[in-house]
Amino acid sequence: MLPPEAYVAVILFLLILFNPIYISYSHNIDWKLLLEYIKVFIWPSLLLLFIKLFKTNISGFINKISELSLPGGIKATTKESAITAQSEEPELKPTIDLLTTEEKKAKITQESSDKDADQLKKELEVTQGNLTQALTTLLYEKTYRLIFPSQIRILREIFNTPSKTVRADVVFSNYKKTIWFPSYPFADYVNFLKNFLMIAETENGSYTITPLGIGFLEYIGTQGLPEKPNDIKLI
Question: For 205-233, how does the pLDDT look when each residue is reduced to its tens digit (9 = 90+)?
Fold first, then answer.
């Protein structure tokens, strides 16, 4: 349905067109000139009339437009579309990661190097442990081949004391009971145990059994090694 303004415009146009005065003087009108005027003003008039008639529809259509591309690469965005886009924009959470790409690569490389270093350290520790165990076993084997039975008894006697320490005269007393006395010097007899790290001499001249000495006694027991021939003198 047309608005009232449209009907008023049509009625005025008809009144002017069919007015007697207008008709009486129509033979003096330059119709070609009038036609040119009509050509000039008809389209703007129709456009204004169209906008007036369909103002509501045109307004709704314009509101639906989110972006316009104009000549020269110019783009325009409507206020409604900007608000909608902003409301739909995901929330950006603050971050403290300010590293550049190169710094991140360096950090990753450093972390990888640290992991490799830790892994290498663990492997070295395992290897070192295995090597230490192997060398300790070789030491025990060589000690067992060379040690005198009486020296093993001295180690056991020292081990069985609460302090794991005995005076030098106790060791010498055991030495005197062996077949090695006096041909084999006491210093050499004791130095064998000291050089193979079975015992250590304290500041006051006593002898204490070392961790290796304790391990050697355990090694003999766990390996089930036979007792060596007695080297004590027969009275």
Answer: 999 999 999 999 999 999 988 888 888 88
pTM above 0.85, yes or no: no
**Beta pairing partners, 72:** none
In whole angstroms, how far apart are CA 233 and each of 112, 175, 190?
68, 10, 18
Domain extent, residue 165, equals: 130-223
Specify if 93 maps to a domain.
no
Residue indicated by tokens 């000549």: 71
How far CA 201 is from CA of 28, 166, 168, 194, in Å, comes to 149, 10, 9, 8
Rounded-to-integer distance, Cα 214 and Cα 155, Å: 8
Q: What is the pLDDT of residues 137-163, one digit of tens each?
A: 999 999 999 999 999 999 999 999 999
Distances (CA, A) of 40 to 36, 37, 43: 6, 5, 7
